[in-house]
Specification:
Elements: H1 2-18, H2 24-38, H3 45-75, H4 80-90, H5 94-108, H6 114-132, H7 136-150, H8 157-166, H9 170-174, H10 178-203, H11 210-215, H12 218-223, H13 229-245, H14 250-265, H15 269-303, H16 305-315, H17 325-333, H18 342-359, H19 364-371, H20 387-396, H21 400-425
Helix pairs in contact: 1-2, 1-16, 2-15, 3-14, 3-15, 4-6, 5-6, 5-7, 5-10, 6-7, 6-20, 7-10, 7-21, 8-18, 8-19, 10-21, 13-14, 15-20, 16-18, 17-19, 17-21, 18-19
């Protein structure tokens, strides 16, 4: 019963969001509450939601102040010189810009943090995409694919969880996958190339006027602080370095960074209020989605729906397919990101899958390798179960449904490419 309710909750949520029958906030709050009540947990729902909010609160606070921080620096014109430099390198060619986006996303994800990747990549590239007339959904898709594929690396959360769950070293788990992952990254660049060609076709002759359009906004020019360019860049470097080092929690980093950036660029109190008001709508809207996501995951975890779904997924595998569990795991790994958070999958589903595979004479490690090719790697930037997804769509300003419809097919394709290469190499048995 719980497994059924869990699957119904996920399916209804995705259907409502992707068909735009309900807003993301409404769906995330009401759908799990209704299914929890139907499951007999009406009296406990409030507690589940509260626990979920506690887990998401730091991310929500980080998001609000990160948006304000990067918004202030964008207003101050910090990224204008960078955009002009990029335009000189890539020209006005959307294909080169798209490929550059993929490479930047990969480099930004070297620390293994989705939030850091999005906070570095999106604010720097969004003005360029807007200036070029390129769709923001394309930016979100390319950065998501880059971060997701890079998340397979040994220091990525899913890989560490899988190794811990299987009680093996991270290098033993990952090393045989190095070539498949490299091919996967090449596939991401190829997708970026294709999306760039689509953008070039849509934009047409607009590319010739990019620089002029970008520089003629008098309202933006009045807010710019070109003399503080070096100071602002240093603030970004210090904030990101502190974030990556882990010396301070992300929410604290961006609270401090925002306050310093605001005072440095707009010392006048009236100007400070205007700048905060200018970005308040976006930050509040996406923060509300994050907290709604906290309620969603809190209910699914508290009711036991996630655990029940994990058990149901394992028991659904026919005995005749037992020897092919690694291959099956690889195929379903990316879509599984829409159903299971990383902890539930790697500490709940994976041990059962691997032990079942062992009974059929299949190396348990191969199941772990197959899993990390998609579960919360290529799949994490589209999953409603991760705060990073909402951070990504919040920074780009795209709709979750639009992002999922565009990105999921490409994310699944990249996973299959890596899986095929791994099978051909004999890393994953068939």
């Amino acid at each position: 019963m719980l497994a059924f309710l869990g699957f119904v909750t996920i399916v209804v949520l995705l259907a409502l969001v992707m068909t735009k029958k309900a807003s993301v906030v409404v769906a995330l709050i009401l759908v799990p509450i209704i299914t929890a009540v139907l499951g007999g947990f009406g009296g406990q729902v409030a507690g589940f939601i509260t626990n979920g909010l506690r887990s998401i609160a730091p991310t929500g606070v980080m998001f609000i102040f990160a948006i304000l921080f990067f918004g202030i620096l964008t207003d101050a014109g910090t990224f204008s010189p960078i955009i002009k430099k990029i335009l000189k390198v890539v020209g006005n060619d959307p294909v080169k810009i798209a490929i550059g986006t993929a490479i930047l996303g990969m480099l930004a994800h070297l620390d293994g943090s989705g939030a850091t990747t999005f906070l570095i990549s999106i604010p720097a590239l969004l003005p360029l995409y807007d200036a070029m007339g390129m769709r923001r959904t394309t930016l979100a898709t390319i950065v998501a694919l880059s971060a997701g594929t890079m998340n397979v690396l040994p220091w990525g959360g899913p890989t560490i969880r899988a190794a811990t769950s299987l009680e093996i070293s991270v290098t033993e788990l990952f090393n045989p996958l190095l070539i498949p992952v490299l091919i996967g990254l090449a596939a991401v660049i190829f997708v970026a190339f294709l999306l760039g060609k689509q953008e070039r076709k849509l934009i047409g002759s607009k590319t010739a006027d990019v620089d002029t359009t970008y520089e003629q906004d008098d309202n933006k020019a009045a807010l710019e602080r070109p003399k503080l360019f070096i100071v602002n860049i240093l603030m970004i470097i210090i904030a990101v370095a502190t974030l990556v080092s882990g010396k301070l929690p992300p929410q604290v980093v961006f609270m401090i960074a925002f306050a310093v950036a605001l005072i440095a660029n707009y010392p006048n109190v009236k100007e400070q209020r205007e700048r905060i008001d200018a970005h308040a709508k976006a930050s509040l809207m996406m923060a509300s989605i994050l907290f709604a996501a906290g309620a969603f995951t809190g209910i699914l975890s508290g009711t036991g729906m996630i655990t029940a779904m994990a058990e149901a997924a394992v028991t659904a595998i026919p005995v005749s397919l037992g020897a092919r569990i690694p291959l099956i795991t690889g195929v379903i790994s990316m879509p599984a990101s829409l159903l299971f958070d990383p902890d539930s999958f790697y500490f709940g589903v994976l041990p059962v899958l691997s032990s079942t595979a062992s009974q059929f004479g299949v190396d348990a490690i191969s199941v772990g390798r197959a899993a990390i090719l998609g579960q919360m790697t290529t799949g994490f930037p589209v999953s409603p179960l991760t705060g990073a997804t909402f951070l990504l769509i919040g920074l780009t300003g795209v709709d979750l449904g639009d992002h999922q419809k565009k990105t999921i097919p490409y994310a699944f394709m990249v996973t299959i490419v890596m899986l095929v290469v791994a099978v051909v190499m004999g890393v994953i048995p068939v």
